[in-house]
Amino acid sequence: MKAIVCEKPGDESVLKIGEVPDPVPGPSDLLIRVSHAALNRADLMQRQGLYPPPPGASPILGLECAGTVAAVGTAVSGWRVGERAMALLPGGGYAELAAVDHGSAMHVPGTLGDAEAAALPEVYLTAFLNLFMLGGVKAGAAVLIHGGGSGVGSASIQLLRLAGARPIVTAGSDAKCEQCLRFGADVAINYKSGPFAAKVRAATNDRGVDIILDSIGGAYLAANLEALANGGRLIMIGLMRGAKAEIDLGAVLRRHLHLLGSTLRTRPVAEKAEIVRQFLARFGADLEQGRLRPPIYRTLPLADAAMAHRMMQASEHFGKIVLKIV
Ligand SMILES: NC(=O)c1ccc[n+]([C@@H]2O[C@H](COP(=O)([O-])OP(=O)(O)OC[C@H]3O[C@@H](n4cnc5c(N)ncnc54)[C@H](OP(=O)(O)O)[C@@H]3O)[C@@H](O)[C@H]2O)c1
Fold first, then answer.
1. Is residue 62 within 8 Å of 53, Cβ to Cβ?
2. Residues lining ligand 1, judged by CB closer than 6 Å?
3. Is 312 exposed, middle or buried (0-12, 13-18, 19+ CB in 10 A)?
4. Which residue, by CA, sits nearest to atom 39 of ligand 1?
């Protein structure tokens, strides 16, 4: 099959179309003929050799895809060849075929196009896992999302709105802040125009937020603690600005704060299946009725994967960048 291959770690120029053997699905797997795959920030790190795939996963980039089912494993029920599928992948999305445990796949509702379906699993399941399963978001909660215009950020805004919570976001330009507000954020703070913590406190009558979904890491730790309400949860999912920081543990004790971290990709397939199950139980009707819809910034042909990576690196996008495979 055709796929993007990186012969060695490096800049965008290492992304080349090549021929590789077809994946061989196991008894619990679906084989998906991929029509679209979406980019994630982690792909940029993997390309540079900084985020190796988990053991047993495809070395090909790509954490989510959509297409049609080409084969169904002998131990799988509930799927038929020819049905539309979208899936969370541990790797292997930038290719014509992807094999995936059936528990990581979801049926695509008629309300979603193929590019939108490909752009949904990784970011909506990450937002759902962290905000709802680990964060316990309730209606009325104030939630700070760093990178409101990112794939995960835009998914978070949509899920929080549907849950009756209050999304407060940061973004790197006034234009992106405007886009976040139009997309459903309640407050958008341009983090390049001054420290965000005081603005978060001002937006919450000095109470602070109940939850922060943080993909920035070390450089934001102190300001994140300042922006949290007493009893609040800081949930760390990325380290775009460092893995190390000094922390005032006194504040954590006095203010009853919770610090959590998580990754989705490395989880066993049974845990991913449970996340998918709970996501569909909570938001399946919204998905069916078209209320969950990732914003697509650009769709490019697979051959332009390098250009797509440059676009993401430049952070000019709002929402998702998608590759059209066939
Ligand atoms: N732990 C998990 O399971 C998991 C799963 C999925 C994603 N993630 C993490 O979630 C984050 C978002 O992923 P994504 O694919 O949605 O990303 P994305 O669409 O590429 O968006 C990331 C955004 O972060 C902002 N940004 C980039 N570098 C920054 C920096 N140095 N300081 C501050 N902001 C910066 C940019 O927005 P502005 O223009 O507003 O600056 C950028 O658009 C990544 O850190 C990713 O690794 C974690």
1. no
2. 40-42, 122-123, 126, 147, 149-152, 171-172, 176, 215-216, 237-238, 240-241, 262-264, 312, 315
3. buried
4. 172
Say which amino acid occupies 205. Answer: N
Type of residue found at 46:
Q
184 within 8 A of 157, measured Cβ to Cβ: yes
- C-alpha–C-alpha distance, residues 95 and 169, integer Å: 34
Tell me how far apart the alpha carbons of residues 90 and 68 are, in angstroms, rounded to a whole number: 18
CB 177 within 8 Å of CB 202: no
When pLDDT is cut at 50, 70 and 90, the band that residue 326 belongs to is: confident
Closest atom of ligand 1 to 40 CA is 15
Q: How far apart are CA 313 and CA 308, in angstroms?
A: 9
How much is the pLDDT for 223? 98
The pLDDT-based confidence of 315 (bands split at 50, 70, 90) is very high
Q: Hey, what amino acid is at 12?
A: E
Residues 153-208 have pLDDT tens digits of 999 999 999 999 999 999 999 999 999 999 999 999 999 999 999 999 999 999 99
CA-39 nearest atom, ligand 1: 15
- Ligand 1 atom having least distance to the Cα of 265: 3
Domains of the chain: 2-120+265-324 (3.90.180.10), 124-261 (3.40.50.720)
